[in-house]
Amino acid sequence: MVMKNQNRIRESAGDRGFSAAILVFLILFAILMAVPMVAELAVSLSSKIASQTGSIGLLPVGFTFASWEFMLRNASLWTSFLISVASTALVVVISLLINSMMAYPLSKKRFGPARAVLLLVVFTMIFKAPTIPYFLALRGYGLYNSFWAMVVPQVISAYNLLVMRSFFQSFPQEIEEAAEIDGCGKFRMFFRIVLPSSKAVIATVGLFYGVGAWNQYATPLMMIQDTALFPLQLKIHQLVNAASGDIAAAVKVSTANYTNDTLGAAAVIFSMIPVLILYPFVQKYFAKGAMLGSVKG
Amino acid sequence: MSHQNLKNVELMTWAAPHTIRAEVRSDMQSSRTREEAGRRLVRHFREFWPYYAMILPGLVFLVLIKYVPMAGSVIAFQNFSLRKGIAGSPWAGLEHFRKLLDYDDFHRVFRNTLVLGALKTILIFPVPILLALMLNEVRNALAKKSIQTVITIPHFISWVIVGGLTFDVLGAGGLLNQIRGAVGLETILPMQKSAWFRPVYVFTSIWKESGWGTVVYLAAISGIDPGLYESASIDGASRLQKMFRITFPMILPTAVTLFLINIGSFLDLGFDQVFNLYTPMTYDVADIFDTYVYRSGIQQGKYSFSTAVGLFQSVIGLILVVIFNRLSRKVSEDGGLW
Amino acid sequence: MKTTQRILGTLLALAMLLSGAAFAESAESYPDIEYWFTNEGFLPAEVGGAYYNLTKETIGVGVYMPYVDWNGGQTYREQLALRVAANDTPDIFIYNNGIENSLILDGAALDLTDYLPEYMPHVWNAIPASVWETVRANDPTGQGRIWTIPDVTTFTRHGAYIRTDWLEAVGKEMPTTQEEFVDVLRAFKEKDPNGNGAADEIPAGGRMEARWMDYLFAQYGVAMYEGYPEWDVYDGEITYSAVTPNMKAALGFVASLYKEGLLDPETLLNSSGDWSGKFDSNVVGVYYHIPWVAYQRLQGIYDYTSGAVKAQVANLPQISAEGYEGFITVKPTGNSGKMVSADVAKDEQLMKAAFRVLDCQYNMEYRDLEYGVEGMHHEVVDGKKVKLPEDKATQELLILQTPGCQVENVEVITSRLEAVRTEENSWQIDESIALLNGNQADGRVIASDGMPSTVYEGYEDIQNRTLYVEYVSKIITGEYSLDKFDEFVERWYKNGGQAVTDRVREWYAGKK
Fold it and tell me: Which of B81, B85, B299 sits opposite C464 (nearest CB)?
């Protein structure tokens, strides 16, 4: 890879060497990260016997689309896909609204109760609800076998809230003070000034909520037993199981050319694709100076 | 607004002492009459009602989704019965906590959890920061974006699969032994050697989550005023100097927040990772609270015991967070989680 | 829009279900039964679906089950617990891993004692009286009632088999003594029986946690079931086999095999798939499993070698080490079975429907239910039902499975093997049937058959044998010397083993 020197100010030889070393290191690191993914792709395209005997490396052995075909011809996979898309989109929108509104006042030192509320938030991060009471509470809210079971429990997380708060804390106070002198109210300040200038943190936290909602498994597993409402991750578990049945006593004929492993590998890649497609768009908001650029503009 | 001004403002946000809140508070405490307090309260609400309104929705969800189910933790002090529910189950006092402390290998589980927690905090936590700092130095936009995307991929692969791959790579016919074989070393089986478990734990943690962990730091870096770098360049600062004098201090607050969050889950290492990496031969260094409670509580339907162990971990997490939060606030008043 | 329709349809079905009484046509029609069974990836059998309709037509009761992941029983048990906690217990459900005891003690199960002879005569008669006696004796409430319908296995289920084509290749006879056995393993290792020119043979082995090599331990009379040490009579007293001198001797033997490289070096790292995969790769000589599903492994070797190797296997006789008596552990009263929710008693029709479903499962008249839905699970060729190959993308779960399959014996298994015989796999089925019949004489019912897991109450680490797997794994790999075994025994007794032993002995005394 050729390094392009885009800086207006000339770089010293030392700087160039430094940059090159970093780039080489990061590329090696990225390869290390990508290798298992390549291996998974190979597994997803390999035959049953190759998978059973563990003879697959970085290239498929006994090349076949059997696993992908099994997965993709399952009509309900796409239903589940849409359910996951819908719930993820809702979670992102609702959670961003709720979280940013909550995180902003909590970043204000002048707002006395902030510390008490923050302590409440931190508490939820450390103490976790036991499974059965959690299930019973959600069921009590009418979320059993409901689409909203994939949305409501996801809309607030202490981690994301605290991250957001820490970003709001570093918002230039001078801008706010100036706006306040101009008679800007607190709502207006937040929605018209602070929020539009916080694209990076909104993108980050939105990404966290989105990925969390997309990958959620435990709560839907508890709450959704109606297959018509299965989100993608539940459906995928069902499909991956399709090759198991090593219940010792099962006497059966199977002509399938896939195993749990090949199906699992295909499923991992399948469920990752939407994220990999969307992520570069989110990265746009991490461009240098994104935050201040909009403040100035 | 000039760059110079902005820089000052930004730096001030972290350095300047803020006393307004403290004043309000001490005023309130020292108010002598009830009326005066009442007046202050009215004034407080008149000024801050929008803040209360903004917090309310989040708070409602927090109570409904987190606090109501959390109240179910009382089953740690019961012998919980599925049919009788929380209202009808008999009380057990501290029996389940006593059982945990009386567990023959309690000290081992506790020590292992502490060691892995420390490794997580000292060796694993800083990696995303370093990666983000490095990524920030990549000038080629395409290279930067590609690397950034590729290193997040492992986050989406479950521990079951990562564990399986780890066993493969370190197995008798795996990559490690192929390399060893090529240089004439005998075959080893690291997954059944206690000495290997901790390095494997650290390595797999970094492999799986450090790339994903850079996201938040990259966002923080994006908030840094480019003017800071420009003026530093004019002053003749090298890349390395800029990295440590500008970028690092600017993302430090985010790092501190994440560090404190991390401390809160010090003993909560995540069941999946260890469960998918350990074997009976490595129990002596790998058995942690999460795996112990899985075997002895969850798998056996011992809800009260599982909850008791969870509470024990949480209380220690809380103590640690309180201590570190205080330390952090001593350094910078803005630096705590609360 | 199809999605919306499906969702609406399901909601409607649920609503109808909830108001089931209002829809009941006549006194004779039974309400539907929610019946939870093992499902590993099949489509759920939902109300109004093909399988539901089949059961409704055939036995008069619609049977359904939502999709519940099995996941080795773990997810199933968690999901079941949630439904019980929400007072929404499925009408009939299978149990395993000891959950039945807490459910019985909690009052979630229906007492079947008085209903069995009258309403479920086929169940009552299909299960041997001796098993019912065991079930009564093991009632966790101590009242001698029947709360469960256990899965019953009246034959020797497990066993080791050996590659006879390999024996031939190395010029050895079938081993009958330990000495001969070790000699054969050595020959397997050294003489390249698979003939590929590489020293890749793994004479024998097993899986993680020292599982699935019971036959090695059994040479010293250690009672063991799929790697779980069992309770049996040693020195006149019922004892945990893991803490007996037999176990120590067996460990010495297994460790020596490991050290010599006669066991897979990765024995203690192998997952289920790893180990069967090695056998499929045509490199393993002796394999311990359920011998009559060997046809799957033979097919594996056949596929792996692209049809070049039609592996020949035969039962490895149960060998006895000198001074010991070897046997295969048999447990007729399974740790799994079926229960009925206590809540069905609130509605007499519902209760009768549940009983009818269970009774029909054991009634050979409804045997054809095992073939499922025509076009989905089977097709009719020349007037005869033929099972279609398994396809979980299109097939609904067969909740009621084979009538009579819950009482397994040599005949039932043989007929099931015959049902999957095709022209291509005929040789494999022949070998499987031969293996099934070949080791029946080696089995012995152990003394703790049907022992309730309540004996472990409060000592979960004894129940899940944590200490055992740790010591045993390290002794086999040579990290611990055999002397460490005594330390294990001491620690085991100290940490609850003694208390559990006392309970087991008390239970055993009461049983006799």
Answer: B299
- Give yes or no for A134 touching B (CB within 8 A): yes
CB A247 to CB C85 under 8 A?
A: no
The CATH label, of 1.10.3720.10, 3.40.50.2300, 3.30.390.30, 1.10.357.10, for the domain at B98-331 is 1.10.3720.10
Q: Say how many CB pairs under 8 Å bridge B and C.
A: 83
pLDDT digits (tens, 9 = 90+) for B11-67: 333 333 344 444 445 555 555 678 888 898 899 988 899 999 999 999 999 999 999
CA distance C56 to C25: 14
In chain B, domain spans: 31-68, 98-331
Residue A73, chain B, CB below 8 Å: the answer is no
Q: Which residues of A touch B161 (CB under 8 A)?
A: 36, 40, 264-265, 268
**Residue range B126-140: average pLDDT?**
93
According to DSSP H, which parts of C29-98 are helical?
50-59, 74-85
Interchain proximity B83–C98, CB inside 8 Å: no
| pLDDT, tens digit, 9 for 90 and up, residues C388-438 | 888 888 899 999 875 455 678 898 889 888 888 888 889 999 999 999 999
For residue C460, pLDDT over 70 is answered with yes
The confidence band for C289, taking pLDDT boundaries of 50, 70 and 90, is: very high
> Taking residues C126-140, what's their average pLDDT?
89
> Looking at chain B, how many residues does it have?
338
- Split into its structural domains, chain A has a count of 1
Q: Between these two residues, B75 and B1, which has the higher pLDDT value?
A: B75
**B73 to A129: CB separation less than 8 angstroms, yes or no:** yes
Q: Indicate yes or no: CB of B301 within 8 angstroms of CB of C77.
A: yes
| CA nearest to B271, candidates A128, C197, A74 | A128
| Tokens 């969307």 belong to residue | A278
Residue A12 lies in a domain: no
Residue A176 belongs to some domain of the structure = yes
Q: What are phi and psi of C378, to 5 degrees?
A: -150, 165
Q: What is the CATH number of the domain that holds A87?
A: 1.10.3720.10
Kindly determine whether residue A239 and residue C41, on different chains, have CB atoms separated by under 8 Å: yes
Q: Give the whole-angstrom CA distance, residue A129 versus residue B291.
A: 18
- What pLDDT sits at residue C5? 52
C391, burial (CB in 10 Å: exposed 0-12, middle 13-18, buried 19+): middle
ipTM above 0.90, yes or no: no
- Cα separation, B150 vs B132, in Å, equals 14
* Range of the structural domain that residue A243 is part of: 75-296
pLDDT digits (tens, 9 = 90+) for A219-232: 999 999 998 999 99
> What does the mean pLDDT of chain A come to?
86
Q: What angle do CA C287, C289, C292 make, to 5 degrees?
A: 110
C288-296 average pLDDT score: 91
Closest chain A residue to B69, measured at CA: A134
- Pick the range with the lowest mean pLDDT from A178-192, B100-114, C170-184, C492-506: A178-192
User: In chain C, what are the domains?
Assistant: 28-151+336-408 (3.40.190.10), 159-331+425-511 (3.40.190.10)
pTM: 0.89
Whether residue A64 is predicted with pLDDT greater than 80 in this model: the reply is yes
Residue C403: per-residue pLDDT:
46
Name the H helices within C232-347: 245-259, 272-280, 294-304
- Chain C residue whose CA is closest to A49: C304
E-state strands within A172-218: none
- On whether residue A137 sits in a domain, the answer given is yes
Looking at the partner chain, which of C43, C66, C277 has a beta carbon nearest the beta carbon of A53?
C277
Structure tokens at B273: 């990772």
Does residue A59 sit within a domain? no
Chain C residues lying within 8 Å of A226, measured CB to CB = 10, 14, 66
